[in-house]
Design a protein that fits this description.
This protein is mostly helical. It contains two helices and no strands. The chain has one domain. 5% of the residues are buried.
Length: 65
């Protein structure tokens, strides 16, 4: 596995983690728990969006190599 493929694998793993954190904190919010869960949901959602845009940028960059 080359460094490029490892980087793509690492980005996808981070995206899976971010989506799990959004789901988990969203369920805690729906169960009535406040406080840290709303912060976790928002930050994880922003991280997921940033990760998707970074993955698309990285894939475009590597196709030109």
């Amino acid at each position: 596995m080359g460094i490029k493929n490892f980087h793509i694998f690492f980005i996808v793993t981070c995206l899976v983690l971010m989506s799990f954190l959004v789901y988990w904190s969203g369920r805690n919010l729906a169960a009535g728990q406040d406080g840290f869960n709303i912060v976790m949901a928002v930050v994880s959602g922003l991280g997921f969006i940033a990760g998707i845009s970074y993955l698309s940028w990285f894939l475009k960059k590597t196709k030109s190599l």
